[in-house]
TrEMBL record:
Superkingdom assignment: Bacteria
Major location (coarse): cytoplasm
NCBIfam families reported in the protein's UniProt record: gcp_kae1, T6A_TsaD_YgjD
Cofactor remark from the record: Binds 1 Fe(2+) ion per subunit.
Protein name per Swiss-Prot or TrEMBL: tRNA N6-adenosine threonylcarbamoyltransferase
Gene: tsaD
Cofactor requirements of the protein: Fe(2+)
């Protein structure tokens, strides 16, 4: 058996978990602690990096202690520690890595630096013991990619967003419509009472081949529709807001469904998996499940608690890397940008910090 502690602090969730892999390769989540920061960032309409970093520094040791207590283990019972090294907000990443390195030095345990995106991408193996290869749609607040997952360190990008990620777009739409943050759940809730056909928003890049996506223009179209309503009637009604949300959500679902269909054509894997915070959207899940069925692929989505950032996925990614015989990487620096497929050409600006995706 192999037991790892996972530490996650890439954005605004302070998380720690203990995961065990048995001799047959089956995973068991012994504990999972996630301390959200939504109340700290709510007054600002989005995540404030400095506030997030300070909160991580204050809460990480408590989260680790709680995860060990829930698992009924001590540090001495572990076989290793995994920590998110990127991509993400640099202050939060440094908070997690400093704690993890301190624990590793104090205990002599091996330390594995994990790509946050690999944690999401490997979640189907944590929850369902899926064999390689499989197709992963990683759809979150900061990322949207189609990945051919061929091994614990082998990810081939088939397509990606060229601007906003869907989760980012959901948050921006929520802000435009004076809904609370994080925006995804609130937009979905409003959309449930709306008419998705009232506003015909664009479906970006469907007129181009391939699996790349774009959501910036869709966000702008919603903004213009909102402003036209306000100019015409002096404000928005409750139904206006619901219909705007429903139209936006329908456009996102249409785009992701069609691009997923194309990705399965490019990489006809037996399993289509989805992960990331936007994977919690029930409308999107239903559309992707239909696409998978039409393509003859098994559809997998993690439990809702594992869609958003968590330490369990980091612990499992650490276990997979540790057991694969990959070179030690404990000295890796924190990286605000760290694409999974570093051989792929960057689709989003690449500067001194490197390619974003």
């Amino acid at each position: 058996m192999t037991t790892f502690l996972g530490i996650e602090s890439s954005c605004d969730d302070t998380a720690a978990a203990v995961v065990r892999r048995d001799a047959a390769g089956r995973a068991e989540i012994l504990s999972s602690v996630v301390e959200g920061q939504a109340s700290l960032h709510a007054p600002f309409g989005g995540v404030v990096p400095e506030i997030a970093a300070r909160a991580h520094a204050e809460r990480l040791d408590h989260a680790v202690s709680a995860a060990l207590d829930q698992a009924g283990l001590r540090l001495a019972d572990l076989d290793g520690i995994a920590v998110t090294a990127g991509p993400g907000l640099i202050g939060g990443l440094l908070s997690g890595m400093m704690l993890a390195r301190g624990l590793a030095v104090a205990t002599g345990l091996p330390l594995v630096a994990v790509n946050h995106l690999a944690g999401h991408a490997l979640t189907p193996r944590l929850t369902d013991a899926v064999d390689y290869p499989y197709l992963m749609l990683l759809v979150s607040g900061g990322h949207c990619q189609f990945l051919a997952v061929e091994g614990p360190e082998t990810f081939r990008r088939l397509g990606s967003t060229i601007d906003d990620a869907p989760g980012e777009a959901f948050d921006k739409i929520a802000k435009l419509l004076a809904l609370p943050q994080p925006g995804g759940p609130h937009v979905e809730r409003e959309a449930g009472g709306g008419d998705p056909h009232r506003f015909r928003f664009p479906r970006p890049l469907l007129d181009r081949p391939g699996c790349d996506l774009s959501f910036s223009g869709l966000k702008t179209a919603v903004l213009r529709a909102r402003d036209e309503l306000i100019a015409a009637q002096g404000g928005l009604t409750v139904q206006d807001r619901r219909d705007l949300c429903a139209g936006f959500q329908a456009a996102v679902a249409d785009v992701l469904a069609e691009k997923t269909r194309r990705a399965l054509g490019m990489f006809p894997a037996p399993v289509l998996a989805v992960a990331g915070g936007v994977a919690a959207n029930t409308v999107l899940r239903a559309r992707l499940e239909t696409v998978a069925a039409e393509s003859g692929a098994r559809f997998l989505a993690p439990p809702l608690r594992l869609c958003t950032d968590n330490g369990a996925m980091i612990a499992w990614a650490g276990i997979e890397r540790h057991l694969s015989g990959a070179p030690a990487n404990a000295d890796m620096p924190a990286r605000s940008r760290w694409p999974l497929d570093e051989a792929a050409a960057p689709l989003i600006g690449s500067g001194k910090r490197g390619a974003k995706a």
